[in-house]
Design goal:
The structure holds 2 protein chains of 2 kinds. By secondary structure, chain A is mainly alpha-helical. Chain A is built from 13 helices and no strands. In chain A, α4 crosses α13 (270-305) and α12 packs across α13. Chain B is an all-alpha fold. The two termini of chain B are 14 Å apart. Chain B is globular. Classes of the chains: A mainly alpha, B mainly alpha. Chains A and B meet through α1, α2, α5, α6 and α7 of A and α1, α2, α3, α5 and α6 of B.
Chain lengths: 306, 318
């Protein structure tokens, strides 16, 4: 305790020469608090407006009719809740097939990534071999490389094996691309399970596989779900690889379709654009809401424990 | 010194639990070498084929004259691409824009996120609203963030111009189409989009600052600012350095947001290096030349990483 008190003192050596009686200091602290509290609320309100207003505006625009959007004296709120924008955008922008493509790619990526990263994550967390060093280095490296370097040769390779303009090619790329992060998250969750549990299981005569299935897997389930959902979100949101690899309009994923939709903004109504954007965000938002607590805490525990 | 630097990437974050881990290996892992390889193999094969191999090839491609086309023969041309790049004013301009963008977004994002994290760390009543809102951009596809801000910044219907008209300012600014406003506008969107990770990371760091240090300092009469400067900030330093470096690299590599917002326009004012290289490769078909640009980007990222690792090494030595 004394050590902790010592440190701040040595940091500001000026302070000890003007000691003040404790009660007065406390009251002054209270007084500054009365001044700073409203300022803090003001700042928080500023953040809420900055972060929330664009979202609110997107929501409102999606419900406005073209007449409302173009009127000379626009009212902030839409006059009625009409869903025309949603239905029209769905038809005009080909949202349904695009959403289907996105769904296929995201689900397949998630399944493959989960299946192959689970054993690898276990190995990385439990066996401290050279492999772990290499893998961790690769995981970090994969987060910082400019994609342009990977995409050109990848494009050439996929072209050779006929996987350009195919959802299979896209799934392959997404799998490889989201694997490092999934692996990192998952091995953090494995490391969080006490190894003593496995030892106890083994001592009771369980085979390794049995121990893994009966003890580790249930404990790992929440982390596994979080990792899967995060992989899904990444694939659902991804744009760059899809832009390069998919040219056939029938195979476009949602972000591609929406980006094309923007190009036609002149003719297309803003309301429809907003409606389509809202629809495309919903899956990511819902999944993210489910995992956000685990994600934020899991990421950090992984970051701190290494 | 070099050896500590070499071993740093895998350590990444501080690793205080090293000794117990070693003991753990001897208890469970045993001869885990072969088992480990078997478990890792399913992940290793696709990574090698579609990640390591293309990456190595990409680095090499930067020294060739590879072009799009069916039967073009590829040959090494040494540093030709780089001498050509040296004289390419458009490329340098794009690089300058990329650095302004990366540093601009990262610095603004850092201060905005630090402020928000400090507020969220207090027990203010409506902070859950701010916390929820601060997470939303994380989940949104970058394409949709860009679309949303195009609506916000729309010169005729956008609420920003409308608000400016309402308070008597010139309300006809074409934010994304004007030479002088395009880059700043895009940077603001970049800050909005990137705040979640930074805020949450800093908030977690704040919650790990020992409270007894704060109490001790305040008993000694340190005011809020002094406590922040002498207690919070030093404790937060490793996290600040880590998240800022990552933000810098991520922003330098970013593509989708600006591609949809401006596609590099007007007149190349927002042409980030990734956009420039993308155009070079997939619009003009100059694969080798584009890969050379990628290599130059790698060098810049390497410099960022070097400073990060050096700072981590220093803080560990002190």
């Amino acid at each position: 305790m004394t050590a902790t008190i010592d440190r701040p003192q040595s940091d500001n050596p000026k302070r000890p020469d003007r000691p003040a009686p404790t009660p007065r200091r406390l009251s002054s602290a209270k007084r500054t608090r009365r001044v700073t509290r409203p300022l803090q609320y003001l700042a928080l309100a500023g953040y809420i407006v900055f972060l929330g207003f664009p979202l609110l505006f997107l929501l409102i625009t999606a419900f406005k009719t073209p007449q409302e959007l173009q009127s000379a004296a626009p009212s902030f709120l839409p006059q009625s809740l009409n869903f025309d924008n949603f239905t029209e955008a769905t038809e005009k922008a080909n949202l349904i097939p695009a959403a289907l493509n996105s769904l296929i790619v995201s689900v397949a990526t998630t399944l493959i990534v989960t299946v192959i990263s689970l054993p690898a994550a276990y190995a990385l967390a439990r066996f401290k071999t050279k492999l772990r060093t290499v893998a961790t280095g690769w995981i970090l490296l994969s987060q910082v490389f400019p994609f342009i370097l990977i995409i050109i040769p990848l494009f050439l390779v996929l072209k050779q094996i006929g996987l350009i303009n195919s959802l299979v090619g896209l799934i392959l790329v997404y799998t490889v691309w989201s694997l490092p992060f999934a692996l990192w998250m998952l091995q953090g969750y494995v490391a969080g399970i006490p190894v003593e549990l496995e030892e106890a299981g083994a001592m009771d005569g369980g085979s390794r596989l049995l121990v893994l299935r009966k003890i580790i897997l249930p404990l790992l389930a929440p982390g596994l779900v979080a990792t899967s959902l995060f992989t899904f979100i990444s694939a659902w949101n991804e744009f760059f690889f899809a832009l390069v690899l998919i040219q056939d309009p029938a195979l476009q994923t949602l972000p591609l379709t929406l980006a094309r939709f923007v190009g036609a903004e002149g003719q297309v109504q803003l309301g429809q654009l907003a409606a389509a954007s809202l629809l495309a965000t919903i899956p990511s938002l819902v999944f993210f809401a489910l995992i956000q607590k685990r994600l934020t805490s899991g990421l950090l525990s992984g970051a701190v424990k290494g | 010194m070099t050896s500590t630097l070499d071993s740093r990437p895998r350590a990444g974050a501080p690793n205080p639990t090293a000794p117990p881990k070693k003991r753990r290996r001897s208890r469970v892992g045993g001869g885990g070498g072969r088992d480990a390889w078997l478990l890792v193999l399913p992940a290793l094969i696709p990574v090698l084929l579609f990640s390591v191999y293309p990456l190595a090839q990409g680095l090499l491609l930067g020294f060739t004259d590879s072009k799009a086309g069916l039967n073009a023969t590829v040959s090494f041309n040494g540093v030709d691409n780089y001498t050509q790049l040296m004289g390419n004013e458009l490329f340098w301009n794009s690089f300058r824009i990329g650095l302004i963008w990366a540093f601009g977004v990262t610095i603004l994002q850092f201060f905005a996120s630090l402020g928000l994290a400090l507020l969220l760390n207090l027990d203010l009543k409506i902070r859950w609203i701010a916390r929820t809102l601060a997470l939303v951009p994380w989940a949104m596809p970058p394409v949709i963030i860009a679309i949303m801000w195009r609506l916000m910044l729309n010169p005729t219907y956008g609420p920003i111009n409308e608000g400016m008209r309402a308070i008597g300012l010139p309300g006809d600014i074409n934010w994304l189409g004007d030479f002088s406003t395009a880059l700043p506008a895009v940077i603001v969107v970049g800050v909005w989009a990137g705040m979640p990770q930074t805020t949450i990371t800093l908030l977690a760091g704040l919650q790990n600052v020992p409270t007894d240090l704060h109490e001790a300092a305040s008993i000694d009469g340190a005011g809020a600012f002094k406590r922040f400067w002498h207690v919070t900030l030093p404790a937060l330093r490793p996290i600040i350095v880590a998240i800022t470096t990552l933000d810098l690299i991520w922003n330098f590599n970013s593509f989708a947001l600006v591609y949809v917002l401006t596609a590099g326009g007007p007149g190349g004012q927002t042409m980030l290096p990734m956009l420039f290289a993308y155009n070079e490769a997939f619009r003009y078909g100059n694969f080798g030349y584009a890969a050379a640009m990628g290599n130059v980007m790698v060098v810049v990222i390497g410099i960022f990483l070097f400073f990060y690792l050096r700072s981590q090494a220093r803080s560990r030595n002190s």
